[in-house]
Amino acid sequence: MSDIERYLQAGTRENTRRSYQAAIEHFEVIWGGFLPATGDSVARYLVAYADKLSLNTLKLRLAALAQWHVTQGFPDPTKAPVVRQVLKGIRALHPAREKQAAPLPLQHLEQAVGWLDGEAASASERGDAATLLRCRRDAALLLIGFWRGFRSDELCRLEVERIQAVAGVGMEIHLPRSKGDRDFLGTTCRAPALKRLCPVQAYLDWTELAGLARGPVFRRLDRWGNLGADGLNPNSLIALLRQILERAGVPAESYSSHSLRRGFATWAAASGWDLKSLMGYVGWKDMKSAMRYIDPTLSFGGLAVRPLPGSDAATLAKLSDEL
């Protein structure tokens, strides 16, 4: 790999790179298309999968084809008028409601964490180190994921050396990159210590018990309690979350890893956070993105956009009295 290719690869998020590679393979191998493509061939490809793939998936395939042509020095066939018109027709003839993960309500979070705490206490009494580790890890995963509204890939990429946590005070988390960080500038997130359901104490309990000083915060555990060196795979979080909830007696079919993010947004909106504060805390860049995560049954009277007094951590610290 040349230096240019190495830096080009580093400039694209890993998930995006994998998705684009799969899209190109689908166009060439599965459908039998040829590259470089023409606008007509791309239009025929869209028609072939118009009733089989979602509109968002088709758009991703177009983005992958566009990137391939641009980086290879060829004209972008996805900009052809016939492609845009076909895509518009697909949207009209195959309308589909966008699927969203159900928001995890606070009571279900509390039920799951309460169950994990009970299991941890029992495991400690009988000397079951593997179960104790798993309970501490899962509690920290749920609480940090919920109260910071993290995406699954952000949770899996958290690193111990990039987190500063002080019991009873709060925690500071540095993310070198995230979905909205197009320029890879990194961002620093903060969360306060809470009187209960505390993400800070859960993090400290987990990392101290596991003896973590560097590397991924959330790692795979085998049945004997042996820790893996790599972080959890984001694709594994849906199954892990549902497993935790089901064992805690919470119906989990409608929940996914995004339910933590939506759950926090729904709770914050219901608790009177204004939209600007919520967007700044969670990291949304535009109002349209934020509104997708807020339960439409809520009253929006308390969501008038106004300046946020103090830091986001100070605002969330009000939970200490509300919970």
UniProtKB/TrEMBL annotation:
Domain Tyr recombinase positions: 99-308
GO BP annotations listed: DNA integration; DNA recombination
Keyword annotations: DNA integration, DNA recombination, DNA-binding
CDD domains referenced in this protein's UniProt entry, alphabetically: INT_Cre_C
Domain Core-binding (CB): 1-73
Annotated signal sequence range: none
Record has DNA-binding as a keyword: yes
Domain of life of the organism encoding this protein: Bacteria
Pfam families referenced in this protein's UniProt entry, alphabetically: Phage_integrase (PF00589)
GO terms assigned for molecular function: DNA binding
Protein name per Swiss-Prot or TrEMBL: Site-specific integrase
Organism this protein belongs to: Azotobacter chroococcum
